Amino acid sequence: MKVFVASAWPYVQSVPHLGNLIGSILSADVFARYARLKYGKENVILVSGSDEHGTPIEVEAVKRGVNPKLLTDQAHEYDRKLFLDVWEASFDNYTRTESEVHKTFVREFMLKVSKYVKVEEEEIPYCERDKLFLPDRFVKGTCPYCGFEDARGDQCDRCGRLLTPSSLINPKCAICGSTPVMRKTKHWFFDLREFSEPLREWLTSSGDMPDNVKSTALGWINEGLKPRSLTRDNSWGIPAPFPGAEGKTIYVWFEALLGYLSATKEYFKLKGEEHKWREFWEEGRVKSFYFIGKDNIPFHAVILPAMLMASGENYALPTVIAATEYLLYEGQKFSKSRRIGIWIDEAPRIMDVEYWRFVLIRLRPEERDMNFLWREAIRIVNNELNDDIGNLVNRVVTMLNRYFQGVVPQYSDLREEDVRLLELAKTSAERMSQQFERGKLKAGSEEILNLAREANAYINLKAPWDRIKTDVKDVGNSLYTAANVVRTIAVLLYPIMPKHAQVIFSQLNLGNIDDERWDSAGEPKVKPGHKVGKPNPVFKKLPQDFEVKIEEIVSRVREEVEKDRPELLK
């Protein structure tokens, strides 16, 4: 079985914030690291890339009088280094929509679905001052559904409804602010109506698709799918391949979705094995997992599968689309203009990246919007990481060195509480796997903490420091059991905190954690006679005054970081 893992493609117009990170890149990486242990490295691929096309970049380029690619080159490289080098994202291919492989693939794919494409005229706002049509974000106005006065021509940021430029009330040109006139223009439309019933059948029959994705997508279908324009009057993007479509480009949402396929193809092409890319896209041979924010559900659960169906190829439809709700920051929406939130180039200067990874997974908004609070982040680091997990590791390795010269003792006649904890280690790994396979990473992480707390309670009950004087055999049983639970916790922690999981493995003297297999996580692999390393604290608590000083810290870091950002991202 092949496993395809994808993150929604980050848009390069701005540096992602923590909410963007947990909704896509980080979640996809955590799952992919788990999947490699579960299914084998050779059977898993993780892809994403910079979404460079579309109107926001072109609007910015027009305002600055520069070529859009000059801006996206800088932004792509900056984001790529952040994701891969700083945040430890283990992409097999982190590419971009300006990739030649992607552009060629998209044009060829569009011709394959041309039987479902029709040409129609529509009225689009036209700016007489700038002498151009105003597709998507070239125009702003009032949302006709919720009344939000700063809605874009493609989507309302307040209510999330998808819009068209002509549906806006009181539209204004995003470049000059003038009121546009309506003019007719010809466009190519993908007829989604043809796929209403196949999409409904696919969604309702899926036992793996999360409920929030099903309900949103089925809501779209029940409202009645309509043809959606494949083309735009932009100059920045992939030229439309249809006869007579000269001067048109492919609508960014259609072409960016195809990046999942083109990124897979590009990865194997770079390896000299281009013929292998279809192994990760062939129906019946692959499970696919997409990690996105909830505002992207219609594109991934309606438009993408419809295009895959229309292609005539045997492409695998998504198995799980894991769509997070919104992460708020201290009760408010992230806002660059109002300086509300933390951005991913600021966060590493505030706290260890792997602490961030753990905190964000623990706060992942899987069922409802979640609120990032500094006091909660501090509690997670100090109580969950340091006290529950780190303290357990330190206690066990310390006692092995103190009472048995660092050698795992022989065990015999394990008692009920020993057997119960070893069984819990095994079932914890199984339950965490089940949650991850449903795209529930936060829920899965609960198993790590539950096991650590049970192990700490077990050690308190067994009290080796007292029994060493009267029952060495029982102490041997206890520390043999506890050492194996610590190993299990390291494996379960690895997808979230790979470096710290390796530190735990190193203290147990167990070699490279990358070589482990998930299905052995709960097995008692630490055998009697094995010599462990020396104890050393795995985690450190954040200072007591951290919350008091955090505003000052953030302000200082923000000032430092903004100097280093590319021009487009300032």
UniProtKB/TrEMBL annotation:
- Which Pfam families does the UniProt entry name for this protein? Anticodon_3 (PF19303), tRNA-synt_1g (PF09334)
Q: Which residues form a coiled coil?
A: none
Q: Required cofactors, per record?
A: Zn(2+)
Q: Which Gene3D superfamilies match?
A: HUPs (3.40.50.620), Isoleucyl-tRNA Synthetase, Domain 1 (1.10.730.10), Methionyl-tRNA synthetase, Zn-domain (2.20.28.20)
Q: Where is this motif: 'HIGH' region?
A: 10-20
* Segments forming domain Methionyl/Leucyl tRNA synthetase: 4-396
Give the residue range of the signal peptide: none
Supply the alphabetized keyword list: Aminoacyl-tRNA synthetase, ATP-binding, Cytoplasm, Ligase, Metal-binding, Nucleotide-binding, Protein biosynthesis, Zinc
Q: Which NCBIfam families match?
A: metG
Q: What is this protein called?
A: Methionine--tRNA ligase
Q: What is the lineage of its organism?
A: Archaea, Thermoproteota, Thermoprotei, Sulfolobales, Sulfolobaceae
Gene name?
metG
